[in-house]
Request: fold
Amino acid sequence: MTPIRAAVAGAAGRMGRETLRALTAEHGFHLVAAIDRTEVGRTARELAGPDVADVTLGQNLSAALDGFPADVLVDFSHHSVAADHALEALKRGTRFVIGCTGLSAEQVEALGVACETSGLGGMIVPNFAVGAVLMMRFAQMAAKWMPDAEIIELHHDRKEDAPSGTAMRTAELIADARTSPKTELPTPHFKAEGARGGEVSGVPVHSIRLPGLLAHQEVIFGTRGETLTLRHDSYDRVGFMPGVRLAARSVLERPGLTIGLESVMFPED
Reply:
């Protein structure tokens, strides 16, 4: 079986380095390019360990893909450049998987149009943890029976965007799945501004950023006399890697733009 030629953007970051270790020949991949604004000139092997391909980090994605054609680009760089990276990849016949959250609705729409025009697939994945996708699925199921819900998402102190992409996606799924209206609460009297968090699709969302956390989320449902709590915890970035590999393989077979791993994990929907 021919290995999948993979390029990684944001390769010097923590998720990027873990992805370099994940996309090895052992798993059916061949790393051909690694891109980052930092650590330019160092090798992926230096950054991520002896089992990683001896690829030198570059700074310019277009030049890297011109020199080393790839089947798929896995991007953990930053939302400010990820959409441009994806467009450059499509121009060169390379499909993309974006793991950065924080893309605007306009950027997502433009990427969808670009995928359709090019005839190539792309994926935007808010969370690569299989358990997190299952949590969102269970939340969607619960919302049909318990329409009142709130989300608490907890992440490390270096995460810039809030709420997280996972929390926003979960809120959208809950809102779409409701078959009865949520309870109308009285207008709150705030003793501290923002104490009730924000709202996404009518679902309250609370964002916590602290050292010592990685990625965690609780969805709490309530109805008369009972509550249901769904929680997912990621303790190590290695837990995201099966989902990264699943996305990188699946995007080669999927037309258009795909949001999330749900449609890959649950193709019957």
Observations:
- The first strand starts at residue 4 and ends at 9.
